[in-house]
Amino acid sequence: MERVSKETSAVLNLISALILIVMTLMCFFLWTKGIGTQGMFNLYANMNRYMPIGATIVLLLNIYRLKVGDIIWIALAIASIFFYHQFDTLREAGFLQNITLALIIFIVLDFKLVEFTKEIRVLFAGLMLLILLITAYRIFTEIPTTEGISIWDKSNKLQEIWINTNTIGSSVMCSSFIASTLFQSLEWTWAKYLKYPIYLIALACAWVVQSQAAFLAVAFFVFFDLWPNFLKEKMKWTYGIGYSIFLIGIFPLSLILANSNEIDLFTGREDIWKHFYQTLFKVKEQFWVGMPPFTFHRGTQILGNHNSYNATIGAFGLIGLTFMSLFILYNVWLLILKTDTQKTQWSFLIAFFGILLQSTMEDTLMAPYWIPITFCLLGLAWQKNKVTIIVDTNEYSTDFFESGEEINSMTRSQRHQ
């Protein structure tokens, strides 16, 4: 795409970054404040409008940065809207649901294309840390206590504090992932050390609110993120294989677990999944393109899928799950195959895989109010730090938008002079 002037690009970039930060803050505000008031509920109910608008504006502001691969994915995203519109009656869906897959692609591209300078990353990471601290404060000051039972005891069963505890756990997980990965990417000594208290706060909060999925995801991230950067880089092929096996196998694995009477790995969610699959397979076309909204009744509770991959199949069928998985794998494998991927970028991929693991028990990949704070990690994995290359006493700086081929060309020409 045609370039714009450096000054104009800097202004557009700053506006774009601020819009993306505000979008993520809006998502976290829902869970940090709660949706108990009419005003907060209205915000919650309209997020499926606000998020696509914001994502589209940012994409338009950065249209000059698009590459061929990005344009192809945008075209596929738009085509998916028209494709699923053909099955609105079968799925009992409308435009706002049909654009969900496009929203995922737009969000990832937004966080990929916008240059998050170190100054912007400090601001973004600081805000995410503030969200985490506010959430932690509310957890430990508002958690209901039972005489004789510690809040750390697993028998202290909770379902809600100011909002559902699984939602609180998901918020803690996402804010800690974004904060720790952004601080690490700065490659400043003081910033690197901040990840350790973030780890501890996230683990403590997820444990206390009894959010099993969030706790396991944070524990997974902490374990692998503690590895030295050189080991993370050596393991890059493992990331690609792990992502591929997981995304290919998650549907058949969920189907097997749902129909097993012996295995209970997901705290009773298998009953929900079994009922979901029974409903899904009643009509052949539903399996391919989606079905009406699914709910599960357990006593007085009305529950959703509690599995993002089932939620994706329910809304968009196996075609939609395959489409989303291919987009994720495209980004992951492209980062792995690129020779100039920096060591700091691997933490974002580890964190996003933690999100995928947690999503086996929650609907965090499909809801418009979660998509910006989950899929942003996949987009941020493309962010790089500036590198200074010295050739014959002359310095050349490269940034996120300058390719290795351009650097090699400059180097060869300098040597011939």
Automatic annotation (TrEMBL):
Keywords: Membrane, Transmembrane, Transmembrane helix. The chain crosses the membrane at residues 12-31, 43-64, 71-87, 93-111, 123-140, 198-227, 239-258, 313-337, 367-383. It comes from the Bacteria. This is EpaQ family protein.
